Amino acid sequence: xxxxxxxxxxxxxxxxxxxxxxxxxxxxxxxxxxxxxxxxxxxxxxxxxxxxxxxxxxxxxxxxxxxxxxxxxxxxxxxxxxxxxxxxxxxxxxxxxxxxxxxxxxxxxxxxxxxxxxxxxxxxxxxxxxxxxxxxxxxxxxxxxxxxxxxxxxxxxxxxxxxxxxxxxxxxxxxxxxxxxxxxxxxxxxxxxxxxxxxxxxx
Length: 203
Hints:
Layout: H1 9-19, E1 39-43, E2 58-62, H2 63-69, H3 85-90, E3 114-115, H4 124-137, E4 148-156, E5 159-166, E6 172-176, E7 180-184
Antiparallel strand pairs: 1-2, 3-4, 4-5, 5-6, 6-7
């Protein structure tokens, strides 16, 4: 991957624009065949936090909104209705047909789950978090291996759950506070969230 991007990045980002109707998911500005605004593919979970280049972790933003997402300038306001920061960053929970999206098979890992904050190689922040949780719990409670990792799993676009999973025995845990892990059979047992914690999104 040149510069940290896959070889098919240009094709991938164009597919994201098409999926999002060539419209900025923050302010509604349109580009491509429907407008004159420059469009960018924004990583919902930052690359520096291990965010993948999968389309499920990408959303369309205009250049001004994309710059604002990275601390450069101010994003234009939403024209139709105001949205909070987390709603803007992760996508609206609106059920309008325009915003209904489904994960595709290529977004899913071998076990069928969509891991929003994971790529083929873990970033330094992910490694730091995983090392800390393995030290705290002495590895996986089920198999004893120091292969625990924290994941944000997308149940559907805009709804995700935070789990701790073992990369060796494939066990899933619900993190309760900082010191307790509750064994669960699948991520679907947990109540979904529309956003991640602030400290997990810092570049």
